[in-house]
Amino acid sequence: MIWNEQLETISREELQNLQASRLRQTVTNVYENVPYYRELFSQHGVSPEDVNGIDDITKLPFTTKASLRDNYPFNMFAVPMKKVVRLHASSGTTGKPTVVGYTRNDIETWSELVARMVTAAGVSDEDVAQVSFGYGLFTGAFGLHYGLEKVGATVVPASTGKTEKQIMLMQDFGATTLIGTPSYALHMAEVAREMGINPKSVGLKIGLFGSEPWTESIRAELEEAWGLFATDNYGLSEIIGPGVAGECQERRGMHISEDHFLVEVIDPETGESVPDGTEGELVITSLTKEALPIIRYRTRDITVKTTEPCACGRSTARLRKVSGRTDDMLIISGVNVFPSQIEDALLAIDGVAPHYQLIVTKKGYLDVLEVQVEMKDTAFTGNWRDLERLEGKVRAHLQAVLSIGPKVKFLEPRSLERTAGKAKRVIDLRNK
Ligand code: DLL
After folding, report:
1. CA–CA dist 299, 301 (Å, integer)
2. Residue ID of nearest Cα to ligand 1 atom 6
3. pTM surpassing 0.90?
4. Which atom of ligand 1 is nearest to the CA of 241?
5. Which of 212, 236, 284 is the best mutation target for the ligand 1 pocket, counting ligand atoms within 8 Å of the beta carbon and taking the most?
6. C-alpha 34 – ligand 1 centre gap (Å)
7. What is the distance in A from the centroid of ligand 1 to the CA of 188?
8. pLDDT digits over 360-372, tens only?
9. Whose alpha carbon is nearest atom 29 of ligand 1?
């Protein structure tokens, strides 16, 4: 089913006209109402008259997380606070959070976009949907909540934590849909097993997972554990939260809500656009946001865009699974390594559990990467020879895939800390 047939199957030409007129409005709006943008545009020698078609977007400067941080908390807002009905924030690793605001219309748009996304994944008013994202300043839970309610699903706002209780609720309320981070959903399956419950018996049909990078190997683990159909969805607070893009049941990329967002993919080094089908950094301009319109936001997320038609009938462009962020790329002795590459390599080996952490240190001038990974219960025999064999296998495989030889340390099942939110995979101690 398609939630908004008219806009999700719009012809490319009509879409581009709509995007162009909304872009012009947005640019004029930020120029007139956000002093920061007026100043930035002047510094770059551009003004709203220079922007007519969507290709003119490249004349405009980028916005970054630093722009938001420098304007903390509300200076990037384009409306008076009277019109702002909701605030959310994303916690950075250091310092103040990034604050985002919504008008009543923004909340309505957000619900509409999430409604499209959950419908594309297969959720309807027949479903009981458990939201296991944390309710609070994080956009994940409230975003999914309103969109699911809009399609008429029965929403269970379970939030995070109290995992055993969550599993009981899923069983008792007959949950068919689980919403959360992929890492927490894996953890929930583990806890269910500890409670003597086969996760498959819970009866979940669809999983809507997002908010952190996850590979196809994790998708396979989740589907195997819960017996559900796992879909990916993407978003970020600065843009709106979840609802920016999501997979349909074809699962061949995440459809972008292009009537609300203009998406570019650029070379992160040069800032130049790359052609469709080429990997690069995702840059997003909002086209309808009222409280916090945003121009050419550098997401730091790495993906590929395609406008090839999708078998589902939607005409919108799609994004390949986000493989990581430009800022979580590790450079180990000069070799670029993404956590997702390590995840794929690890999970290709039997006996390795989908719980790992990458520790980077310095020994003299040399970078040292240690991959700490848990074994599956079934592989944990207690015999050190088995352990050695598995370690050797993992080390050789990582060496072949990454061209660097990390240290490998096997951990007992359940020894790494589990988080209910986004998993912390990398601990880089080099500059500490
Ligand atoms: O994580 C919004 C969201 C909530 C998306 C729930 C999907 C579901 P932030 O906390 O601001 O917002 O984090 C945004 O998380 O720039 C990506 O690096 C990462 N991210 C989000 N979704 C995905 C995904 C929410 N499906 C940052 N795959 C983004 C990979 C993702 N990374």
Report:
1. 5
2. 140
3. yes
4. 2
5. 236
6. 26
7. 20
8. 998 887 889 999 9
9. 236
| Cis amide prior to 61 (ω within 30 degrees) | no
pLDDT of residue 92: 63
Residue written as tokens 């406008």? 307
Angle at 323 between CA 113 and CA 178, to 5 degrees: 50
Q: Which residues pair with 332 in a beta bridge?
A: 335
Q: Report which residue type is found at 356.
A: Y
- In order of their start, the domains of the chain are 1-327 (3.40.50.12780), 335-428 (3.30.300.30)
Distance CA 362, CA 430 (A): 6
The one-letter amino acid code at 308 reads E
Residues with CB under 6 A from ligand 1: 90, 133, 139-140, 210-213, 232-237, 241-242, 299, 301, 322, 325
Q: What spacing in Å lies between the alpha carbon of 237 and ligand 1's midpoint?
A: 8
| pLDDT, tens only, 282-322 | 999 999 999 999 999 999 999 999 999 999 999 999 999 99
CB 425 within 8 A of CB 356: yes
Closest ligand 1 atom to Cα of 98: 11
Q: What is the pLDDT of residue 93?
A: 54
